[in-house]
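Morning. Coffee machine broken again, so started the prediction first thing and wrote up yesterday's gels while waiting. Chain of 415 residues, entered below exactly as on the submission form.
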Amino acid sequence: MLDKSYLVPWGKRGSLSTDTEAAVLAELVHESTPLPAGVRRERFERSFAASVGSRHAISVNSGAVALQMAIRMLDLAPGDEVIATPQTHRATVQPLLDYDVRVRFCDIDPTTLNLDPAALEALITPRTRALLLVHYGGCPAEMDTVMALARRHGFLVLEDCVHALGARYRGRSPGSLADLATFSLRNAKSGTALGEGGLITCDRDDWAERLHRLRAPDRDARTAHLQPESAGLPGTSYAMPLQRGCVRRPGSDATMPEGVAALGQAQLAGVETAVARRRALAGRLDEVLARYPFLTPQSAPAHSVHSYHLYTCLADHQELRDRLVLALDRRGVEIQLRYFPQHLLPQWRQRGHLRGECPVAERSWFEQHLNLPCHPTLTPHQQDYLIEALDGALAELNGAAPAPARMPATACGPR
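Came back before lunch.
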């Protein structure tokens, strides 16, 4: 579609701006304590860990870096297998390209769009080392079943919570449901801190210690003293201990800036308000869709609470989906489709992945899937207009809905 101004734009910012945030930034400008000191960062990490119910929260400078470091904690070795969802942004699985492992993409549930536990069980082998999943759009994955499988077969689970801040699964927060979890504070998320930031949550003290080392310039290593005495450098009084090191990874200097941490701390209290606005708008969109049975919203189980980072719905067939996207675009409603199946991206096809590997995810993307604007920065007028535009577009299609006409299999996606 041509770049243009929309009456109802896609969300460029997923959190709410307040005077409190402006005051925090003004205070930082006049701060005399060195900004890298970490006082605000440590306070933010404690608050974030408490908010999701995790023992540790380690902040870094982006959500992508959080994923990279969390995957390092899995200690993957050549020949290991990692199961991953295809229904996610490329950042979730892209770090796996650095490892000599076999990635097995697991198909999704057609209603929640999360990883399907039944499909997961069929992919587990004795070489399965880890599972990467995402709570797609803010709809929590079926974690009890997933974690039971993980414990039975002895693999680790990493939950990508990029969409799930403010969601609930059986009363618990994503970020405390698996072995490791990652969050993003990028601009479109429910928590936004100067455009970029990330966190890793876990309960293991040894992982937290390693993550603290990895995000700093220091190496992640095991060291041993060769002798109890220190060897002085000639001509100086400086003494340097002799050590032997087993270096696992170099340091990264991925520390979250104090300004980002301060803003994140200020926004934590507003997350529930922002998510409540998303849910309220999602409820209104649900009411419209209920009148048109050929369009079905993504649904969360009764024991889960959706955070609606994305409002996703599924059309009965591709021609209907495409006509609806065009009808809404003509009415000034910006539509985006998220996300292209990961196993069909060039970098994964180069590793042998092909169409047909995850048929539910493929049909969802190529034939059914669309995302409607649903973010807290929409004004009441924009929300009203969105509801009217959606209802009008669906009524128009309902009056002359074409018979389902599926594209030939060869045209459904790249090979």
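The radius of gyration is 24 Å. Going to sketch it on the whiteboard this afternoon.
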